[in-house]
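Dear colleague,

Following up on yesterday's call, I've attached the two folding results inline so they're easy to grep. Please treat them as preliminary; we haven't cross-checked anything against experimental data yet. The first protein's sequence and structure tokens come first.
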Amino acid sequence: MAPTDETGQAAQQSSVSGTTPPVRPPVGEAPSNGRMPRWLPRAMVLALALVAAFQLGSWAFHQLTGLLINILIAFFLALAIEPAVSWMASRGMRRGLAAFIVFIGVMVVSAGFVTLLGSVLADQIIKLIEGFPEYLDSVINWINTHFKTDLKRVDIQEGLLRSDWLRNYVQNSATGVLDVSAQVIGGLFQLLTIALFSFYFAADGPRLRRAICSVLPPARQAEVLRAWEIAVNKTGGYIYSRGLMALISGVAHFVLLQALDVPYAPVLAVWVGLVSQFIPTIGTYLAGALPMLIAFTVDPWYALWVLIFVVIYQQFENYVLQPKLTSKTVDIHPAVAFGSVVAGTALLGAVGALIAIPAIATLQAFLGAYVKRYDVTDDPRVRGHRRRGEGPGLLTRARNLWARRPGAERPGGGGSGSGENSS
């Protein structure tokens, strides 16, 4: 093969000078003259594109957080009413009509409860405003009697009306009316969004499951359908068990309030039943605050009786009623339930507190099928106590501890000195 001009010139130069010609760097590496590598601009463009895509995705996620939370709430509401909708659909009713009937029933019950509770609160506020002069006179008389003062209600009212605090409060309240109106409108729009998504999820549940399974292999389809079934069972069981306990709690508190002749006993009983069951662990105490307040307006001792009953009923519910009703529906430990509520509240606020328990119950039931369990050995340490007659007794252990103290003689009888003498 004939040499080229370049190789021929390099060979001549090497033959003249007696040195080897310089070797060219491989393709893709940086040349010796300091030029930029060919791959570096493309890598920089790719890195900038990835950063821009991440920033855009993060911005979109933050903008759509409210919508995603609404969809999550709607999904769990659809799971909660799925058993009722499926039962009506299995009886020959169209699934859309069944979901509509269930939603209308839930909305009517919720609207009636809110209306009754609002009327109760409005009546109590009106009574409080009407009786405020009498309460103020009694407080002034008590202060004048015990502290030897000469206060008058007219002076206090005039000083309050002329105070800068009241003037600033009225101005801030006037400017905050628009904010409250905007919040109310936003809340109504959010409720409408949740209701629409819940209706679509409940009415088109089979179509949604088919759409999800159509992009998965058969093995994954079985797992998705199994997880969906577990979620429906756990969420429906949670609502069923909580509803039954709310009914029992409402009846028990209604009997107490009716016996004490507290006004609005039926509405207060419904309030206690719902709030105490759908806000876990501390819901009973939060729900009992309103009946205690209204009972206090009748007689302060009645408020004390309501508090005692709330505490006793909470213990009865935790140790007797709840384990029997939730053992087959939402079988999770109370500590796990409380921790899930705290975590859900930290992540999603009140929404997370409501959906935390069914979500954890669903996850626990789904993972339980993939965790292999073994028989536990019959060891006293597993039960947390010893069998009677096992191990040293109390006197024996006390004697051994006494013998181990510094300077004590050993059970053999001789100390260190006798050992030296014997040697």
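Below is the second protein, in the same order (sequence, then structure):
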Amino acid sequence: MTGWNNWSGSVMATPRLIARPRDAGELAALVAQAGKVRVVGAGHSFMPLCETSDLLLSLADYEGAIDIAPDRRTVWAPAGWSLKKLTAALWDEGLSLINQGDINPQSLAGAVSTGTHGTGAELGSLSTQARGFRLMTATGQIVECGPTLNPELYEAQRLSLGLFGVAVEIRINVLPAYHLEERVERRPLAEVAERLDELAAATRHMEFFVFPYSDDVIFKTLHPVPADTPGRPPSEAGETDEATFKMICDICAALPHLTPPLQRLIMRLAGKSSRRVGPAHAIFPSERNIRFEEMEYELPRAAGLPTLRAAIDHIRKRRLPITFPFEFRLAAGDDIWMSPFNAGPGASISFHQYAKMPWRPAFAEMEAVLRDGAGRPHWAKRHTLTPADVHRLYPRAADFLAVRKTWDPTGKFANTHLTELFGL
């Protein structure tokens, strides 16, 4: 057995075998011989979605290339490619993804199957952009699904948590390649809260970061611009220097009572505005090298800011040593069975804690606050949902599980966590 752990180090497993198949034949043989199968991308899930004691697969070496549709509106892409590899290949073909999150090492399949999203009031998660899938099922056969081909499998697979098979290719929407201008500045939280709708409507992408002991935010926008727009290149960092932030995190880990004044110091250091311009795929992601643990809840749009304020108030009242800022984003609603955004336009609140500091007690307190705002968790971020919660929050959960039983009746693709989560 070989040890495996996720990116933050909080999820560990000892799979019987970690394999990197190169083609369908190798993959089929591995799936057929295994009792349980899970697939891993970059390990950026904070929940034990990839944990297994049997077969852990990586499709990073799996054969494939992007196949562009004649109308250039969709492409078939290798599901195991990282978003970084995929977006660079698309750029070479004059194409871009419609939206991205703020990191790009995740695999395409991992991002789609967990509902990963960026920000943008009118833009949905990456799952909303998937138009078809080619899966290796429990029988070792590759099955294709889309809106008119095996439509029930397609609807369930759009946000699947890997329960239906191994995705080998995904058909995804694309746009002609575009450039983005990034602007980062400090603003008062009160001003951003008062003008949120106006600020969200002014740019294609808007988000902000707020430390719980500061009254200011790091306000960030991205907006498409012509390719010849002058500006600093993407290689030049525009956010708080990571080395300085890590040093402050280490001080807070040793001396937690210094967290409030050090956060105010960070915001003074972040006072200078910055601006960058470049290809969309180079501007979307940011460097995230400091290890942390994360919880994220998606809330009805109207509940977003009140819940954020309640979360900040709770931390201040309890004097919790939370070193990382909240991240606040907007996303469009969708119709995906197991999407946290399927109840309408959403606001996303991400809550982090430095990996070297205790996180479980604070996460338990924060989850209660976020649930009070009618939130539903990101499936790959820390949460404590039960089967009863799943069925209460997701009216189509029974349909989702019925499709799972049809395509994987023995539960080959369900690990311990998913079995408990859905009451399989």
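For the second protein, one point worth flagging: The chain is about 30% helix and 25% strand.

Best wishes,
A.L.
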